[in-house]
Structures are given as structure tokens and as C-alpha cells.
Amino acid sequence: MKGTTEQGRRSGEERFLPIDTVFKSIELIAESDKSWEDAAQQCVSEASETLKNIRELKVESMKALIENGKIARYRVRCRVAFAVDNSLRSH
Description:
Strand content: over 45%
CATH architecture of the domain at 21-83: 2-Layer Sandwich
Radius of gyration: 17 Å
Helix content: 10-25%
Low-confidence stretches: 1-5
Structural class: mainly beta
Mean pLDDT: 83
Number of helices: 1
CATH topology of the domain at 21-83: Dodecin subunit-like
Number of strands: 5
Shape: elongated
């Protein structure tokens, strides 16, 4: 079978990506007053507004902003990876 193998984390199943799939990644920073998970979801939600084919999110760092001795904001710095649309490529 042609393509590269990507191991599924939860199910253990393999997914094959087309051999010519190219990915690009961008860095995003988001904050939440709820949790780091919510901040990461905000990265994905915001990126989804303008990007197609998002496949992966990697949390690069997490910080908590403190006010009056308590966590006030959760901040994440993430890399979002998406498949490049090559349908516009001239053949």
C-alpha cells in the first residue's frame, strides 16, 4: 500500500495518508479562565475559522497567570498542523 503510516493513539489502528500529503504548522497562543484544555480548544476553534484539513495540535507550553494567590488564566502555546491543499497545483 502506498502512503505513510500514522499510528492511531487510542484504537491502535493505522491510517494511511496519501504519499504526496504535505503539512504546514502554525503557532497559536490562547488563554482561558477555565482550563488548559479549554485554551487548547480555543486554538483549534479559532484556526478552524480560516484553515481546512487541521490534523494535529501539539501543546508546546502551558502557563498559569496568577492573581491574588489563585490561577486566574490558563495559557497555552500550541502548534496546529494542517494538510496543504494541493488541488490548485498545476500538473
